[in-house]
Amino acid sequence: MSARKLAMIAFRLLQAAFFAAIIADAWLDLGYPHWWNFLPLVLAYALVFAVNRTGRTSDSPPKDREPIEVEPPVTGRWSALNSPADRTPSHGTHAYGQTYAIDVVAEPEPGARPGFSALWPPARRNADFPAFGAPLRAVADATVVRADDRQRDHLSRTSLPGLLYLMLVEGSMREIVGVRRIVGNHLVLDLGDGTHALYAHLRRGSLTVAEGDRVRAGQVLAQCGNSGNSTEPHVHFQLMDGPDPDTARGLPFTWRGIGVPRNGETFEAPAAQSQPA
Questions:
Q1: Which tens digits make up the pLDDT trace of 235-258?
Q2: Per residue in 162-201, pLDDT tens?
Q3: 93, 102, 224, 253, 259 from 142: Cα distances, Å
Q4: Which pairing describes strands 186-192 and 266-269: parallel, antiparallel, or unpaired?
Q5: CA–CA separation, 152 vs 155, rounded Å?
Q6: 191 and 140 in contact (C-beta within 8 Å)?
């Protein structure tokens, strides 16, 4: 087991120790200063910071590495969010191989996707979002190395109460449990030459492939969902240098014929040319 993987396990144990200390302090008079409860949390983030710092200066991909060209994972009209074209790391962290990750939401026509609400409704059904159930396609000829679609699709978190719940409660719990609960239902493809593609937040029960399958570029693999650490049905896509998001480094990508759309940019992904035999 790599040092980075051990560090992520230690990170989650320290987070769990923090919550256990808070609960114990609320119920028992342990006789120590309350601020001591936060020591495990401080140590947890100091550990991850140290690991990320050493990783970026040693075996991380060089910043000037050429983007890897692949097919887009969707077809139709979509908009980009959290794009590496605007900043890296695109999601504010290098953790989980997200340095060059991108989120896209379906925009078949203006106004088709519900916007953010301040208070009401606090949550929306997944069927209200045009991305939910959209087919996701292989970005290259590849081998399936991870496939998981057993987690539920939860309601949206596209209101202020929903977003606060995600950030303060749900997100913290998912961090402790592990990366599987963060990415939700997901798929990892081995594209060869040390490159892996991750599709996250897939729809429950939508996978059409299994681990070990060979797939062709353009082949339908699953459907867009709203599982894991997700605010609404959307596609989270990234390239990595390994199959495990806990230990992988992010790799830059570009979509053939599209490039890397910027935040808020709407793009049209053509139907795939190559289909499975």
A1: 999 999 999 998 899 999 999 999
A2: 888 888 788 777 887 788 999 999 999 999 999 999 999 9
A3: 27, 20, 20, 16, 21
A4: unpaired
A5: 10
A6: yes
Task: List C-alpha distances in Å: 174 to 43, 82, 86, 179, 183.
Answer: 19, 20, 27, 8, 9
65, 43 in Cβ contact below 8 A?
no
In the chain, which ranges are continuous DSSP H helix?
3-27, 39-57, 160-165, 171-177, 179-183
Pairwise CA distance, residues 216 & 226, whole Å: 25
What pTM, to 2 d.p., does this model score? 0.82
DSSP state of 95: G
Under 8 Å between Cβ of 179 and 130: no
What is the biggest distance separating any 2 CA atoms in the chain, rounded to whole angstroms? 69
* Helix axis angle, 39-57 to 3-27, nearest 10°: 170
User: Angle at Cα 232 formed by Cα 227 and Cα 234, nearest 5°?
Assistant: 80
- Please report the sign of the dihedral spanned by the C-alpha atoms of residue 83, residue 71, residue 179, residue 54: negative
d(Cα 139, Cα 44) in Å, to the nearest integer? 36
Structure tokens at 170: 């749900």
Phi, psi of 96 (to 5 degrees): 60, 25
User: Rounded to an integer, what distance in angstroms lies between the CA atom of residue 195 and that of residue 248?
Assistant: 10
**34-75 residue pLDDT tens:** 767 778 777 877 876 676 555 443 344 555 679 999 999 999
Token pair for residue 267? 């793009």
